[in-house]
Model the fold of this input.
Amino acid sequence: GAAIFATASPGKWDFLQTMGINHLMNSRTLDFAQEIKELTQGQGVDIILNSFNKEFIAKGFEVLAQNGRFIELGKIDIWDHQKVQQLRSDASYFPFDLGEESQQNPDLLSSLFAKLHSGFADGSLQPLPMKVFPLENVIDAFRFMAAAKHIGKVVLSMPELPSPTPSLVQAKGSYLVTGGVGGLGLKAAQWLIEQGAKNIVLASRRGISSPEIQAEISKLEQKEAKILVVKADISQADDVATLLTHCPQPLRGIIHAAGVIDDGVLQQQSWERFEKVMAPKVAGSWNLHHLTQDLPLDFFIGFSSAASVTGTIGQSNYIAANTFVDTLIHHRQALGLPALSINWGAWDEVGMAAKLSREQKQRLAAQGIDFIRHQDGCQLLGKLMTQNVTQVTVLPMTDWAKWLNTFQEVPNFYQYLMPDTSVESPLKPSFKLELEQTPQSARRDLLTSHVRELVAKTLGFKKPELIGSGQRLFDLGLDSLMAIELRSYLQNSLQCNLRSTLLFDYPTLDKLVDYLALEVLNLENSEPILSNSNHDFCSTLVAIQTQGSQPPFFCLPGVLGNVFELEPLARYLGNDRPFYGLRSLGLDEDIEPYTNMIDLAAHHLKSIQEIQPKGPYFIGGHSFGGKVAFEIANQLHHQGQKVALLAIMDIQVPVAEQEKDAINWHDSKYTRSLGRMFERSFQRQLNLPSSLDSLTLDEQINALLLALQKIGQGFSKVELTRIWRVYKANMQAMTQYLPQDIYPNQITLLRANEVHSNDDFLPDETMTQKDPTWGWSQLSDQPLDFKIVPGNHFTMVMEPQVKGLAQKLKKFNVSVN
Done:
């Protein structure tokens, strides 16, 4: 067994000796170092568990044996890697924080606690001595601990809970739940019945609209409760007045759970969309309040949203609506009426959360947000009803650091949750350095483990081991923003630049590690794998989905030239349709991108014909990519090749008025315009400096890089510079291109159904009414195949609207096959 050498004040030695520790030294002096050397004949100890600071740390290193390990439990005076190396290059130094470890390895902590519990249960372990202070004497407890008077633990005792308050829910009378047949409304009704309610009135604008809802209501009725479903629009006062006549008297309580969402960034919102969302929350809650304020209710509960407290991207209307509910509840409280607003986070598989896609759920997890379990939510509802509170937010946070990282500048609201920056955190050695210092035979396993952990971190997986080596990362829920994030993690930890198409080229964990090990890091000291190509042509083709028996679909992205936006479309087109994206030249290489549409299309066409020399061709493009696709189809026609599908997605033929002079734009205008593109993509404000016009291009890119880093986007300067050049070149190519030839075959136009005047690069509502086809009907000898798809210009290729786009394309593919 291990020999223990302990330091403590002399008053605690007797207790330590009862634990079998015989080598004891005074913790108040530095003499322990010399004493340990003498006791170990100068060899020192193999492991030091330290919680001291200042000169005690250096003394600790004096008695650390060769190649020993120094584990730092303290929270101040933590040494960085360089300082340790200067003093003891042979030693390993490990700052340890139990709180961080519990978040990063919850399963490990759970197993250790289980072992402790088992040991206490069978008597093999005994609890440490403790000094107990009542909670109200917490200051005395801290003073006692600061004076180091304690042995074992200092414990705060909670006050005894008062006897349970009689339930507010009674068998006599009735309870009204609005939004009653929605997921959350039905859960509220179930909870009321479990508390003893016998008469429940469920108000719903649509009534019982599906067999599934009827089945849920039947389950509730089996619990010896009378359930009445009343079809009513609570935003209409007359409907609410009629609704109240259906409630058996006395009406004892109201739970207002009605609500709808219609998300979209503020620039794309309209007053009609605001009215739709605000009706049940604003008019509905006011009607309920106004028409019941003279009734002796036991409770009036508004089911509000955490969004009105924390803010949520794309939900300005929903936030405003719920803020009204919160404010009305405070108004009722001021009037002396029963009032409680609960700002719920998302319930697990209930209500609006049940409609979230896998990617949306993983993005919440990446922000540190968890879902409310049904049992927990109902238990909290009962507790809050018995407490003297007016408004409470219920939002499970798994990692506050992740949440705070979503803000460009952390609001004052969260200031007490921010880490203490007065203590300098240790500078951990880079992973690349760790890899280089690892024996060659073990490097590959270390790299695999590292990449798997980064993938898990990006996807929000708590267990990295769930990520199989051969699974496609996109099948696990990786989306375009996550792909950018993962590539950023890899670039930072491996200190290298990686191509923009990395995760399409190497879509599984094992292929990604193979590439990184052999071609980027050269871990096996072998010659890099050379391309099979024997010429200098730089293909822009990106294989997104290579399986299937049908002819491949070649698709071009928007003006930034990155094919990641196309991955959801490829996925929903199915596994029988190979799907290739065509990225912009210059994103991954120091090559000047094309500024002429004809040259640009010719390069893409050459890339296409390297894998498909002859037609029929299936070609499409979104936004800027639609015009490129049109020019490629024209060039194929001049070659005598057949184009079976030309799909133009949401772009007009004429150049937008404000973009016509793009060839003459100052660099700063391109930088600002690119910044707005990023703001739309990341749904965050960048706040570029007003002095941008006076900066050099290099300084502008530095400013843009800094703004992106502040919102958590880890672009490298090389990468951002290439993106800027591609964006400028594509803008110039697009604004100088006006198709002249009439295309001899049919054109398919897929246009988003949401047209907004704020999208100044697209036709507004007035222009769209004059020509719904945006000019494409005039460019073909054949009738235009014109289809409207869900979403707006950006969301039509994103979850969940992309399903509608894919469905339209799949129907066309079936008809031509």
Observations:
- DSSP finds 29 helices and 21 strands in the chain.
- Residues 420-428, 526-534 have pLDDT under 50 and may be disordered.
- The chain has five domains: 5-95, 127-157, 174-415, 431-520, 541-654+738-816.
